[in-house]
Structure formats: structure tokens, C-alpha cells
Write a structure and sequence with these properties.
The chain is α/β, with parallel strands linked by helices. It contains seven helices and 17 strands. 37% of the residues are buried. The strands form five sheets. Strands 2, 3, 4, 5, 6, 9 and 17 form a seven-stranded mixed sheet that branches.
Length: 284
């Protein structure tokens, strides 16, 4: 789930902060066939990112083929960083199949993605990899691991999901991620990328960041379906890019100049209360 800021009207913002530049942005949609969506001039101040929306199944090679097609299209359109959703590698029918299909970070599948990153010359944010960790033999459970690859195919950072999804939805039965997955032991500091600092953990809107939310869509198998709506949201909560309901990608410019100006006019980091909740890291 995404959290959105309640966004004041632009004319009110202009009255409150006369010097604040508020770019006019249109919502950018991607059809099932990828195509260029950017409406901004290219510059180092506005790097282009791609959000890939896919329908993962238990077939890992078919999933890789679909993801690779979108990544190559993103590279062709000039993106410097492509985001793939959680469970980009596969979505299994049950916990037993999940464990059977899982791999270590040094396995064959992640090797294919490192090669893809090198081939395309762009960074990859792999939103959730079913990882057999070093404690696999003891626990027989995996980690939901977010992997960040640079354009040379090197693993720059990993974040193992700390809060697992255990829910019961009426009419759909329970979903208990903890049946097959271990919670991660620690948080991950922000990582510098060509698109700025990237958080490998949830919501950043309330901390004045762009949120890039890659999602699954469609029917994965007879037991599960997802609803898409991948998007990019700016620090005001404006949706600046959005995918359609089918597989595809959307592109958005990350306006670093606008971000710096917004933080100058609304210095939320000066309002932090570490005496109440501790210090989770230095301000971005």
C-alpha cells in the first residue's frame, strides 16, 4: 500500500511559499506494449526511471523472459534505473512450491539478471527475490530479499523484508508469508544511484521523496491474482506516471532540483523527534 500526502491546491502553495516552483506534470500511462512516456527534457537534474509491471507465474524462465523484455525496452528509452516488483522471480501456488523454486543470491537466476544489467548498462531494483540464505539448511525457510544491481551487474545492496505479510482476506483464505519466510534481521541505509538516493524499504512520501512502486498484475495461477497500478508518486503525492492494468512499463523523470527546493521550503527533517522514536539514520 502507498501513503499519499494530502496535497494543497497549487495556488495555495504559491501563496504560502512564493518561491516554490511547482512543475506541471501529466499522469503517464503505459499500455501492455511498452512505449516512451516521458514528457520532460533529459538532463542530469532529471534522471529517467522505469517501472516494470509483470505477471509472475511459477515458471521462472518465462518470468525472466518477460522481465528482460521490459528492462531492454527501458534501456532503449534512456532509463538509468529500472524497478521490478516483489516476486519478480516467481509466484508459486503454495509454500512448498515457493521453497522448492527458491535460490541463493549466487544462483542461476540472479546471475541472469546481473548479465542483463551489464548488457543493458542500467541499474536494476529487484523488488523481492525468494532467497535461500546462509541459514537455509538449518531453517528450511527463505528471505524476501530486495536486491539492487548496478550497471556492471554487481550487487550494491540487499534488504531482507522485516515485516512479513500474514493476512486473512474473506473469501480468499489466509496468506501467511511467515510459513515459508524468515523476517530480515536489519534495515538498510539509503543507497546512492544515478537517480539519487534509493530506499530499499517502504514508504518515502512522508519524508519528501519520490516513491517508485512496481506491482504485479493479472492472474499468476489458479489461486492468485494481482491488480497492477504500478506508479511513480512525487513528494507532493502527485502521481506522475502510472501503468495500465496489463504488463508493461511507465517512465518518469526524477526532478532532483524540485526535490531540493521542496525540502528547503518545507524542512521536515528539522522537525524530527529522535527523543521519541530514536535515530534511524542521517537525513537524506
Amino acid at each position: 500500500m502507498l501513503s499519499f500526502l494530502v496535497r494543497p491546491p497549487h495556488h495555495l502553495l504559491s501563496l504560502l511559499w512564493p518561491g516554490l516552483r511547482i512543475p506541471q506534470r501529466s499522469v503517464l500511462c503505459a499500455r501492455s506494449r511498452p512505449r516512451a512516456m516521458a514528457s520532460f527534457p533529459s538532463s542530469w537534474e532529471m534522471p529517467l526511471v522505469a517501472v516494470c509491471q509483470v505477471t509472475s507465474t511459477p515458471d521462472k524462465q518465462q518470468n525472466f523472459k518477460a522481465c528482460a523484455e521490459l528492462v531492454r525496452e527501458a534501456a532503449r528509452l534512456g532509463a538509468c534505473l529500472a524497478f521490478l516488483p516483489e516476486a519478480f522471480d516467481f509466484i508459486a501456488r503454495d509454500p512448498a512450491e515457493t521453497l522448492h523454486l527458491s535460490e541463493p543470491l549466487g544462483g542461476t537466476l540472479l546471475g541472469e539478471y546481473t548479465q542483463l544489467a551489464r548488457e543493458c548498462g542500467l541499474w536494476l531494483s529487484l523488488g523481492g527475490f525468494h532467497e535461500r540464505g546462509q541459514d537455509w539448511e538449518q531453517t528450511q525457510k527463505i528471505y524476501n530479499c530486495h536486491v539492487l544491481l548496478n550497471s556492471k551487474g554487481s550487487v550494491v545492496a540487499t534488504y531482507r523484508k522485516t515485516h512479513l505479510c500474514d493476512v486473512e482476506i474473506p473469501g480468499q483464505g489466509p496468506m501467511r508469508e511467515s510459513d515459508s519466510t524468515m523476517p530480515g534481521p536489519s534495515l538498510q541505509m539509503p543507497v546512492m544511484t544515478p537517480a539519487g538516493m534509493v530506499l530499499l524499504r517502504a514508504r518515502a512520501v512522508e519524508t519528501q521523496c519520490y516513491v517508485v512502486a512496481a506491482a504485479q498484475c493479472g492472474r499468476h495461477h489458479e489461486k492468485r491474482a494481482s491488480y497492477g497500478h504500478s506508479m511513480v508518486v512525487d513528494p507532493w503525492g502527485t502521481v506522475v506516471a502510472r501503468c495500465s492494468e496489463g504488463p508493461g512499463l511507465c517512465l518518469a523523470r526524477i526532478d532532483l532540483g524540485y526535490l531540493r527546493q521542496l525540502r528547503q521550503h518545507l524542512p521536515v527533517f528539522q522537525h524530527r523527534r529522535p527523543d521519541l522514536y530514536g535515530s534511524l539514520g542521517r537525513p537524506l
